[in-house]
Amino acid sequence: MPRLSPARLMAVDRALDELARTQRRSSIPIELPIPGFWDAVGQLVQHLEAELAETIRSEGMTAKAQLQSRKLGVVRTAVKDLARNRLNAFTQHAVLVRLTQSPEEGRLSPGMRLDPIEWNKHDPSERAFYSGVVHLADKYKHDVSWNSLLSNNWDTPAPPPLSPVHTPLTEFVPGAVDVDEVEQLPPVSAQESDRHWEDPEYDEEDRIREIDDFPEISGVSSPPSELSEDTPEESEMRRILILQDLDDPIITEGGEEITLRTGDIEFCPSIIADTLIAAGIAEPADI
Question: Where are the domains of the chain?
Answer without folding.
Answer: 6-150, 237-284
